[in-house]
Design a protein that fits this description.
This protein is an all-alpha fold. Helices cover about 75% and strands about 0% of the residues. It is globular, with a radius of gyration of 20 Å.
Length: about 375
């Protein structure tokens, strides 16, 4: 398999990619899930999710530092042997495949429901997936440079959006504080931990390309913290403006939030800005997952160049996104009730297994 040492990114670029990945598709859909569970205390669940998410970022960074120059597929074989490594690679590759299928379906659903209702969903999926494949084929250096280029514009639009929402905020919507049980708040934090942070496992494929191994942990933590704070502010704004009951019943609560902006009958309905922000961050999350998937397929099939598999994978993904997720209702139910358990099973159990075998090999 082609070595990743040929491509290098710096630690600032890593932090930007982690930030954009963490925000990802969560900026649009995340607020409704903890609001459904913890009601007005959803922001506390979000804060707890951020703290737990930092621990996941530290775990992934630690694995990357202990195995410099090797991605997760390579050091899995090193630690667990040929067949053990193949099992890990198979599970992770399947996970990334399902992730990309879900994300391109999510893009298709959002565009056809909210922005281009008369456009066939197949067209949206094909266009979006084409750009994702192009980015993955160009490599991690190109993706990182694009992230650096777009990140300041994303921050600017985010700040403008937050400032425009200030007049619509009703802080009473956040009260009473802690009126739900701690058990409910903790349960709500599972989803806020899962979607942005647990899925950072894909960076175990990207970390070998970082040129300064010693600062990997710092970059991962900074990126996770910025992304987590961005999402936490969005949860607070959504509940403070819309209220917890309305937020919980919305599929895209942040998009509905942006529709509330009205300043002097001049600046109104700037939800297109939020849509652009979501498309950008969702693209980075999808392309990085596709990149990890590409290397997983190459590892399993012993391809010398992972790019060879990019187009065949894409054709299968188009079918998978339409068959695996028949409609938006099915997708929302799956994400809310079942997806967190898949994330924790793959993204917590497998890294912990690798850490355990690392210490076992080290002692022997």
């Amino acid at each position: 398999m082609m070595m990743q040492g040929q491509e290098k990114i710096n630690n600032r670029q890593l932090a930007v990619l982690v930030t954009l990945y963490t925000i990802g598709d969560s900026i649009l859909v995340l607020p409704s899930i903890p609001a459904m569970i913890a009601k007005e205390d959803a922001w506390i669940s979000g804060l707890a999710g951020l703290l737990i998410g930092l621990l996941f970022a530290m775990m992934f960074a630690w694995l990357g530092k202990q195995n410099p120059g090797l991605n997760v597929y390579q050091y899995s074989s090193k630690l667990l042997g040929k067949w053990g490594g193949m099992c890990i690679a198979l599970l992770l590759t399947y996970y990334f495949f399902i992730m990309v299928s879900a994300q391109i379906r999510e893009m298709g659903d959002f565009m056809t429901v909210q922005i281009m209702p008369e456009t066939p969903i197949h067209s949206i999926i094909l266009l979006f997936l084409g750009v994702v494949i192009l980015g993955a084929r160009l490599g991690i250096e190109t993706i990182a440079r694009l992230g650096e280029l777009l990140f300041p514009y994303f921050l600017l639009m985010y700040c403008v959006l937050a400032l425009c929402l200030m007049p619509a905020i009703d802080w009473e919507n956040l009260y009473p504080v802690l009126h739900t049980k701690w058990k409910t708040i903790v349960y709500g934090s599972i989803t806020t931990t899962t979607f942005p942070f647990v899925e950072l496992v894909s960076f175990l494929v990207i970390l070998p390309s970082v040129n300064n191994v010693k600062r990997i942990q710092k970059s991962m933590l900074v990126g996770t913290l910025i992304g987590g704070i961005t999402l936490e502010i969005m949860i607070v704004l959504t509940i403070a403006v819309l209220g917890a009951p309305v937020t919980a019943n919305q599929i895209y609560p942040a998009y509905s939030l942006a529709k509330k902006i009205s300043i002097g009958n001049f600046l109104e309905r700037i939800e297109a800005m939020l849509a652009i922000m979501w498309i950008v961050t969702t693209y980075f999350k999808t392309v990085l997952n596709y990149y990890a998937l590409m290397y997983g397929i190459a590892n399993l099939t012993k391809l010398s160049d992972p790019k060879v598999a990019s187009l065949p994978i894409g054709m299968i993904l188009v079918v998978s996104s339409l068959v695996s997720f028949p409609d938006i209702t099915y997708f929302s139910d799956l994400v809310t009730n079942y997806w967190p358990y898949l994330d924790f099973t793959i993204c917590l159990a497998l890294p912990l297994l690798l850490i355990g075998f690392h210490y076992k090999v080290k002692k022997s």
